[in-house]
Amino acid sequence: MKLKYIVFGGLLCLGTGLRAQTLPYKNSRLPIEDRVNDLVGRMTVEEKVGQLSKMLGWEMYEKDGEAVRVSEKLKKAVKKEHIGLLWATLRADPWTQKTLETGLSPRQAAKATNAIQRYMVDSTRLGIPLLLSEEAPHGHMAIGATVFPTAIGQASTWNPDLIRQMAAAIARETYAVGGKNGYGPVLDLARDPRWSRTEETYGEDPYLVGQMGRAMVSGFQGDKVGGEDKIISTLKHFVAYAVPEGGHNGGSVSVGERSLLQNFLPPFEQAVKAGAGSVMTAYNSIDGIPCSSNSWLLNDVLRKQWGFGGFVVSDLLSISGLNGSHSTAADAVDAATQSIEAGLDVDLSGSGYGRNLLQAVKDGAVDMQTLDRAVSRLLYQKFALGLFENPYVDEKAVSDKVGTPEHAALARRVARESIILLKNDDNVLPLSKKLKRIAVIGPNADNMYNQLGDYTAPQPDDKVVTVLEGVRATVSKGTRVDYVKGCAIRDTSATDIEAAVRAAAEADVAIVVLGGSSARDFKTSYQATGAATVDSGAKAVSDMESGEGFDRATLDLLGDQPQLLHRLYATGKPIVLVTIMGRPLNLNWAARHIPAIVNAWYPGQQGGLAIADVLFGDYNPAGRLPVSVPKSVGQLPVHYNHDKPKHHDYVEMDAKPLYAFGYGLSYSTFRYADLRVELREEVDDFRATVRFTVTNNGDRDGDEVAQLYVVDEVSSVVTPVKQLKRFERRTIKSGQREEFVFELTKDDLKLWGVDRKWKTEKGTFKLLIGPASDNIVLEGRLVLTKDFEV
């Protein structure tokens, strides 16, 4: 009887398994829509609501030596809340309290995500895998992952194809350890550098930001969602998050409809049309309506006008912000109702929806159709990713995909192309590798975390190359390299300027590395959203003056950095200033006195080598500013493409920035010539072909970034003083000439008319071509004889 029982039990299990395999939602041969409909039809209301909850992932595993297992907190969340997603499971930083010791190595990370998915598949009623979302703006924010330059540096390359390659590498590393959704790109227009998160953006121009965003989405997702080593992209932050009043992170935004449509929304539209699978709402409100409850943004613009088919996710706790900081909802149930009705599908926190949304459904405030629609959008992406067929990763393949030498080489390339030569009087640069003595000085000269930027996990010391290490690795064996820190970024209690002055006085040249820092530390306290809590009167002073939550009232170099630079200049020795920072800082004095200035933003793990490549001539710099550098906060906003009329000067200074958008020098000189404009007007569109040549007159091969700007001379509504419409970075050999060809159509010249319709108006358009927005060397005209509807 016992044997028969075992056989019967085995047959029963086998039969159950066969029936489970034939359930429509588990049949990979069926269209995704059919699978989604079948699964939604089998779910309880509680399971549907839970599916929209994305909880904090780093609490969902337990580590014991090399062993990793699911935590009791995960089991409880799955049993009681039926969660559908996790966020930042593999994240490590001071906020999560995950260190190199308590966090996960890449191999352990794969074990953790496999354990989590195995629990979901084996221990839940429907076996729905979790979608694991990870921070990935300039590398997967996990121990062992490759750290690339932050977005402001990526944009400084003006090379979308390179950024696409970088994004593909980030996706490969994230996918290898179980992440299937990467947070990025950030498509906010940075027009107030006081704002703490400027480093996360691609700068101030909608066209440049849009091109970089498309590149990131393409690199993350490939040709379609679901490919090996590919992840879906989450666009951030929808929308106009980077221009808060007073530079206060998350503050209200004063943006008109026309500016919103013509400036802030186009980068998102480009990325959506590139196939982005997810969009994140911003914390801010626009004209009194929070982005997380803005039906016009999420339903009308995003879905109806642009055809977005993915899911919308809140920023952390932004749903709760409706009945909290914004005070536009009476209570948490009202906040959940407003958000889901507005088209927000997924709650990042697990507390915005959950029991609040469930109560709203039971009360009839949210109907089942609205809930099903949100759940279906998420499930569609899970099916498209292939999570139901293959929720696990190959733990043995991790070492071949994460933190590889190939990715390190790519990080060095991105860093090199991002470096901007701001000043080079008397050709101080490049330096000779055979100098007898070099002094490397400054708080950012040998601080690995200060050059990595925010949203970076702890990394082993030998993985990151500092400027000091890069210089020592580059110069000849006979060159002596002395290092003195001199001062900190902010703290004035441990300054040793005298030692720095002595080192500079004894050297042939001083390389001074100043700027800022977004390096989080364990002394700083953090808000529930992850932003830092800034205490201007705190006794413990970290270097951090940038990064989420660190808004600035001034843009001056902090601490004793100005004093250090002044004293070093007084030695009379040649000074090369290298800035490592997350936002434009005040360089007025340096621009007047220091002969050579190189800006590296946050250059990532290979930044020291990349900077040395530029300083010693192994690489000819060609980075360009994606954001204008002001002379004073009193000029803000100072972006180049402000609306007409032209700005007039102030009493104290002119209205021009210190360095303009698109600016950057080279060790070569380039000559522009032979401009030709050809126009062919058709019934519904036109095609304007703009041709010109660029010759490298220097004695070095180098890259040139040719830029095309357009001025609408007469328009029915006010338009910008100039607008970037095309650019191309291209290598030109010494003495060689290259032809550049740009094409424009009606979409490039459209405006939002008085009648609230898109159109391209007839009239004259000025075409401006040059190496920077304030350095126009060729000028042409384009005359349209009729209007075009867009």
Automatic annotation (TrEMBL):
Presence of keyword Hydrolase: yes
Biological processes per GO annotation: glucan catabolic process
Every Fibronectin type III-like domain range: 704-773
Entry annotated with the keyword Hydrolase: yes
Coiled coil: none
Keywords: Glycosidase, Hydrolase
One of the record's GO molecular function terms: beta-glucosidase activity
Family matches, as InterPro entries: Cellulose_Degrad_GH3 (IPR051915), Fn3-like (IPR026891), GH (IPR017853), Glyco_hydro_3_AS (IPR019800), Glyco_hydro_3_C (IPR002772), Glyco_hydro_3_C_sf (IPR036881), Glyco_hydro_3_N (IPR001764), Glyco_hydro_3_N_sf (IPR036962)
Homology family: Belongs to the glycosyl hydrolase 3 family.
Protein name as it appears in the record: Beta-glucosidase
Organism of derivation: Sphingobacterium allocomposti
